[in-house]
Amino acid sequence: MSIPIINLSLLTERDVVHTRQRAREVAAELGLDNQDQIRLATATSEIARNAFRYARNGKVTFSLILEPPQRLEVTVSDSGSGIPNLDQIFEGRYKSETGLGMGLIGTRRLMDEFHIETSSKGTTVRMAKRISHHHDTWTQRTAHDLSRKMQTRAPENPYEEIEQQNQELLKTLQELRSRQEELELLNHELEDTNRGVVALYAELDERADYLRRASELKTKFLSNVSHEFRTPLNSVISLARLLLERIDGDLTAEQAKQVRYIESSARDLQEMVNDLLDLAKVEAGKIRIRPKRFEVHELFSALKGMLKPLLADNNSVDLIFDDATEIPALRTDEGKVSQILRNLISNALKFTPNGKVTVSARMIENQDIEFTVADTGIGIAQEHHEDIFREFSQVENPLQEKYRGTGLGLPLCRNLAMLLGGTIWLESELGVGSTFVVRLPAIYVGEATQTEEMSPLPVPDFHRAPVLFLEDNIETLELFETYLRESEFQPILTSELAQAEAWIARHTPVTVVADIYIGNDLSWNFIKRLRDRLPDLPLIVTSSHNEMQTAYASGATIFMAKPVDRDVLLTELRRLTLHGGTRKVLLVDDNEVARYILRDLLDQPWLEVQEAANGTAALSALKDSIPDAVILDLLMPDFSGFEILRQLRSQPATKSLPVLIYTSKVLTDSEKVQLDNWDAKIIRKEEVTSRLSAKPFLDWVKSVGLVPEPATREHNA
After folding, report:
1. Is 274 helix (H, G, I), strand (E, B) or coil?
2. pLDDT of amino acid 224
3. Among the four given CATH numbers 3.40.50.2300, 3.60.20.40, 3.30.365.10, 3.40.50.300, the one describing domain 465-573
4. What are the UniProt keywords, alphabetically (predicted)?
C-alpha cells in the first residue's frame, strides 16, 4: 500500500530548492540517517531541477510504501518532450552539451530503486530509498499523521536550505579530503608491498629456474650414467648365466655358488638403476599412459608365472591369487598396473619368512578397481607407514635388518598409481602382517570403451603367410593382430564360425588358431570338419579352461592355454610352417663382452654372424659385401650408430637393409622418431640379459623375411 505524504509543483527555481528541503525533512521523520538524508535530498533535487529546466508542468510526489521492505518513494513527472538516447545515457556513451545524462547516472547510484519512463508526452522518474529495519514499523495511521504534519509545516527560508546544502557540501569535501589522504597513505604502503612482492617473485623465479635446471641435470645425469651402468651390468649378468649353464665347462659347487652371488648382486644393482630411471621419468613427466582393455584374471595368470622364481627361493610361503573371473574388464595401462602389483607381491614374499601372500581384486561401485596384496609377514609399525613411501627410506628396525631394499619400489608404486588416477595405502601392524591396497579407476580418465565392427576379411598377401584366427573376444583378436604386426605372418581375424568357414571356403591358411567357445557356440565341429578337409593343416586350439585332451582328440596339433604368450605363439607358428636357410648378419658393437654374448646367443646353423668392433670397421665391412641384416649399437667411440644408419639409408644398395638397434641407451622421443623413420627396430640390452634368450633376435630376423618363404597353398572353392 502506498500512502501519499506530500505533493509539490515545480513552477519556479525556488520550488526546486523547496523540493530538496522537503525531501530532507521527510527522510528525517522516517528515521533515515544523515548520509541517507543527504543522498535522498540530492537525488530529488537533481531530478526536480532537470524537470524544471528541460520540461514543463513538473510535479514531485513523496509516498510511503508500507509493504516490506518499507521505503520512501519519490515520483518526479513532467510534460516535456522526453529524454532521447536513454540507453546511451545509462551506458555512459552519450555526450550532451546541455549536461543531460550524468545527473541520471549519479542519481541511480544514490537511490536503492530507480525507474524511468520517457516518451514524447513526458517523463516520469520513480526512485525509492529503503527505511532502516529499526524504523520500518510504519502503519497506515502513522503514515497519514506524517502526511498531515508535512502539509501543515511552513516552508523554511530557501536561503537557509542553500546554507544547509553548502554545509553538507563542505562536510562532504572534508570527508573526501580525509579519505584521499588515507588513500594516498594506503597507496604508499601498497607500493612498498608491491616492491617486496616483485622482489620475492624475482627470487622465486630464480629459485624455480635453479630447481628446473637442477632437475634437468639430474635427469640427464641419470640417463647418461644409466647407460654406463647398464652396459657392464648386462655383461656381468650374461657372463654369469653363461657360466651357470656350463656352456664352456663344469663348475665346482663353490664356484657355482660364487657365480650365483655375482649374478644376484648385479641384478639387485640393475633393479636399483631401473627404479631410479622410472622415478626420474615420472618426475620429468615423460611417462606415457597406454590404456588398453584387459581382463584381471589374465593379469593374475601372467603375474603368477612371472613370480615363480621368487617362490623357488622361499618355498615356505604360499602365493595365492583369488578368483577374478567375475570382475569386468578394465581399460587402463596394463603394464603399469602389473608393475605396481609385481613390486608389492615381491616385497610381500621377501618380508614373509613363512605363511602366505594373498592377491585379490574387487570392483567398487563399477567405477574403481581395488587390488589387495596381503601377507602374514613381519609387518610395519604404524609410525613408519608413510616413511616407506619416501624415496630411499628404510625402516630402522632390528627385525628388518636382513630385509633391506633399495627404498625406491614403493615410492615408484605410489607415483604410478597417481598417474593412473588412483591411490595406494597400507594397513599393517608390527609382527602381524601387511596389507597394501591399490585403488584405480576401472577406465582411465579420458578413455571410453568402444565396440568396433570387424572390417571385411582380407585376401592373402603374396609375401606373407596367412594365419586364420577364430576368437569372439575383440580385444583378444586385436592382441593377436599386434603379435603378428611385424612378422612374416598375415593375421586373418574372424569372430564368428560362419565368417571363418566362409574365408576358408575361398583360401587356405598356413595355420588356424581357434578358440573353443565362440559366443554361445562351440568350435569342435568346425575343428573336426577342418581336420577332415585339410588333414595336414596345423591347428592350434586355445581356451581359458583345461580342454587339452578334448582338443587333441578333435584333431588339434597344439593346445595353448589362455592368455597366449606372443613369443610362444610365434615360435610355434614358425616351427609348424617354416624350414631352414642360411643368412648373413653383421654385428656392430664396440663392447667385446656384448659381442661375445650375442654371438653365443645367435649360434644357429642357418645364421652366419660377422663382427665389427667400431663404426669404421662396420663401414669397411659393408663396402666389401652387403649382409642380409645388421645388428647395430648406438654409442661407439668413432662413429655413432645414428651416423652409420644415416649412411645406410642414404645409399640405394642399403636403403632397405634390415637394421636392428641393440642398445642400453635411454632414447629421447626425437631419437625414437628418427629411428622409426629409418625403419629400425629397437631391442634393449637389459631385456635380453634378463632372460639370456635369443628369441628377440631370431623373431626379428624372421620378421624381416630372412628365412625361406613358407610353403603356402591356395584353394579355390
Report:
1. helix
2. 60
3. 3.40.50.2300
4. ATP-binding, Coiled coil, Nucleotide-binding, Phosphoprotein
pTM recorded for the entire structure: 0.38
pLDDT at 453 over 50: no
> Do 2-156 and 295-440 come out as alike in CATH topology?
yes
Distance (Å, rounded) from C-alpha 381 to C-alpha 359?
A: 22
Q: Which pLDDT belongs to residue 690?
A: 60
Distance of CA 90 to the CA centre of its chain: 49
SS3 666: coil
Q: Which three cell numbers stand for residue 716?
A: 579355390
pLDDT at 218 over 70: no
Q: What is the pLDDT of residue 162?
A: 66
SS3 content of the chain, % helix, strand, coil (to 5): 50, 20, 30
User: How long, in residues, is the chain?
Assistant: 717
Whether the CB-CB separation of 157 and 164 falls below 8 Å is answered with no
Element (H, E) at 10: strand 2-10
Q: How many whole angstroms separate alpha carbon 226 and alpha carbon 235?
A: 14
| Residue range 676-701: mean pLDDT, rounded | 78
Question: pLDDT tens, 345-381?
Answer: 988 888 888 889 999 999 987 688 999 999 988 888 7
CATH superfamily of 2-156: Histidine kinase-like ATPase, C-terminal domain (3.30.565.10)
Nearest to 480 by CA among 569, 409, 606: 569
187-287 under CATH 1.10.287.130, yes or no? yes
- Which of 305, 290, 546, 516 shows the shortest CA–CA distance to 419? 290
SS3 annotation, 322-388 = CCCCCCCCEEECHHHHHHHHHHHHHHHHHCCCCEEEEEEEEEECCCEEEEEEEECCCCCCHHHCCHH
| DSSP secondary structure string for all residues of 219-264 | HHHHHHHHHHHHHHHHHHHHHHHHHHTTTTS---HHHHHHHHHHHH
Residues 413, 416, 417, 418: is their CA dihedral positive or negative?
A: positive
Question: What span, in angstroms and rounded, lies between the C-alpha atoms of 682 and 660?
Answer: 6
Taking residue 677's Cβ as centre, other Cβ atoms within 10 Å add up to 9
What span, in angstroms and rounded, lies between the C-alpha atoms of 44 and 107?
Answer: 8
CA distance between the termini of the chain:
98
82's torsion region: left (phi>0), alpha (psi -120 to 50) or beta? left
Q: Are 296 and 363 in contact (CB under 8 A)?
A: no
Decide if domain 583-703 falls under CATH 3.40.50.2300. Answer: yes
Contacts of 72 (CB under 8 A, 6+ apart): 5, 26, 27, 30, 32, 40, 62, 63, 64, 65, 128, 129, 131
- pLDDT at site 582: 61
pLDDT digit string, tens, across residues 289-336:
778 888 898 889 888 877 776 676 667 888 899 998 888 888 888 888
Q: In angstroms, what is the C-alpha Rg of the chain?
A: 44
The CA distance from 294 to 475, in Å, is 8
Identify any residues that bridge with 492 across adjacent strands, giving them in sequence order.
468
Closest by alpha carbon to 103, among 180, 157, 48?
Answer: 48
Which listed CATH number (3.30.565.10, 3.20.20.140, 3.40.630.30, 3.40.190.10) goes with 295-440?
A: 3.30.565.10
Q: What is the grid cell recorded at 35?
A: 548520509
Average pLDDT of span 86-95:
75
Task: Name the residue ranges covered by the structural domains of the chain.
Answer: 2-156, 187-287, 295-440, 465-573, 583-703
Average pLDDT over residues 444-467: 60
Residue 466 to residue 459: CA distance in whole angstroms: 9
